[in-house]
Amino acid sequence: MSETRLVVSLLVFAAIAIAVPIASTHAGDSAASMDAVVQGCGPPPPGHPIKGRRDFNMMSADEKDARDLRYHEYYHIVPAQKALSSGDLKWDVMNNLHFVLHKVPNDHRALALLIKWDKAGGRDPDYKSPACYLTWANQFAPNDVFVLSYGGLYFYQHRDPVRAREWWEQALSLDPASVDVHYNLGLLAFDESKFSEARTHAQIAYAAGYPLPGLREKLQKAGQWVDRPTP
């Protein structure tokens, strides 16, 4: 039986997926402690002194903005990725991610690495919690489905299912066809013994060709799986 995993589709350098085992949550974290973290985030960084904060989804349409995206990738995203891959969780990760995210709060590449760094145990007292960067990204780009998907994943990992559900349901309201969000909401519903809801999300995800069998296997083991009726 394959491991049940939470997944968010990403673009970092090419199309990849972050797969996170459900069991890999941070011991001692709770919704209450996360509330305190989010409430203590304060205002977002001011952004570039001239260009301010820019929307990642809009930058490729402008030649100068697109050049800045390439600059960010070469000088900041790639070094952060290399440091993370080498197991170096302190140097060259948060300083590079902060450089990008305070200018482009919803940069999908940087947010993806931020979540991977956090899951690997990364902590840096010189910077705010990843929850703050995600909150700022959502405040800046509230209709960005990727930000909402990443946020749901982050909060789920930190044992805050209420906030995870809020972010994922908002993502689904913007993109009802997102198979990743359906799958993740299905796993969350299963954890809460909401089997009918879990089955509905699972059927939608698998009808769209979702590859991971974990949610279906959990439902089958619990005697809660029913194949979706053929139209």
Can you tell me about this structure?
The protein has 231 residues and is mostly helical. It has a single domain, classed as Serine Threonine Protein Phosphatase 5, Tetratricopeptide repeat (Alpha Horseshoe). The chain is 56% helix and 6% strand. It has helices at residues 31-39, 56-59, 63-86, 94-101, 108-119, 130-140, 145-157, 161-174, 179-191, 195-207, 214-221, and strands at 5-11, 15-21. The protein has a two-stranded antiparallel ribbon with strand order 1-2. A hairpin with a 3-residue loop joins strand 1 and strand 2 (15-21). Helix 3 (63-86) runs parallel beside helix 5 and helix 9 packs antiparallel against helix 10. The protein is globular and about 55 Å long. The relative contact order is 0.14.
Query: What is the overall number of helices?
Result: 11
* Number of E-state strands: 2
Uncertain segments: 1-5, 7-29
Task: Quickly name the level 1 CATH class.
Answer: Mainly Alpha
CATH topology: Serine Threonine Protein Phosphatase 5, Tetratricopeptide repeat
Average pLDDT score: 86
How many whole angstroms does the radius of gyration measure? Answer: 18 Å
CATH architecture: Alpha Horseshoe
Strand content: 5-15%
Q: Could you tell me how far the N terminus lies from the C terminus, measured between alpha carbons in angstroms?
A: 29 Å
Structural class: mainly alpha
* Biggest sheet architecture: 2 strands, antiparallel
- Order of H and E elements: EEHHHHHHHHHHH
Count of individual domains: 1
Present the secondary structure layout:
Elements: E1 5-11, E2 15-21, H1 31-39, H2 56-59, H3 63-86, H4 94-101, H5 108-119, H6 130-140, H7 145-157, H8 161-174, H9 179-191, H10 195-207, H11 214-221
Antiparallel strand pairs: 1-2
Helix pairs in contact: 3-4, 3-5, 4-5, 5-7, 6-7, 7-8, 8-9, 9-10
